[in-house]
Amino acid sequence: MSALPRRIAFSARDGLRLSALEWPGDPAAVPLLCLPGIARTALDFTAIGLRHRGRRRVVALDYAGHGESGRAADPARYRVEVAIRDLLDAMAALHLHRVALLGTSFGGILGMALGLLRPGALAALALNDTGPRLEPLGLDAVRDFIGRDPAFASIEDAAAFLRRILPPLGIPEQGWRAVAETTYARGADGRLHPRWDIRILEAMPREAGPTELWPLFHALPGIPLLLIRGEESLVLSAETAHRMREARPDMDLVSLPGIGHAPTLLEPPCLTALDRWLARLA
């Protein structure tokens, strides 16, 4: 079986081209659907896809305006409610009728929304540094990053920039080049630009206080839940993680010392926890 994923293109209901990566696997097993953060792409899940391919189908989605998916004429097309609609369209187009969903940050919010809208489609949910309360300080940092296009001349410049501005992620010095390569792509001008449409910032809500999504979390069905949290995260607080465990004591929790928003999922405790979470599927 090839280690390379298959790139799949399909259309949302409004005709915008969407894209995903797929690692094939046992069609009898519940597939794993991976949703990245708001300024990330399907490439983030390459290691997860390689780890689980063959045993189960793994699909990672590029949202509208991200990666290989199309860019919208109107940035309002990037609103969260439209992203939820795109998720439903993607699941229909890719024949993902019931999934284990692994969502980083924004991807986890979409996963919680799916649990409310289509509870029968959600077999398990893993939330990577996200939950039903998002702290404004962390969201402000995310917004600042999303809206930037530094147009780097070299991958070395991009790696140095990311190493300087991103929160602590436990990435070794030699690993930052790979992070830069999954964050920026070379454009027609020869410079490196974000793999997302920076106008996504215009569609992000800006609330005065924390973003509260508790109704979504409380509506989740009785499925295997996993929460991964970086202990230095400015987006998901320790208090919110504690409240989530109180509401769902069956939810597994992985807490990563010295790691901010969001864990790469390559940390050994994360890989072990994800293996255990998937093993709980019927």
UniProtKB/TrEMBL annotation:
Residues 31-154 form the AB hydrolase-1 domain. SUPFAM superfamilies: alpha/beta-Hydrolases. It comes from the Bacteria. This is Pimeloyl-ACP methyl ester carboxylesterase.
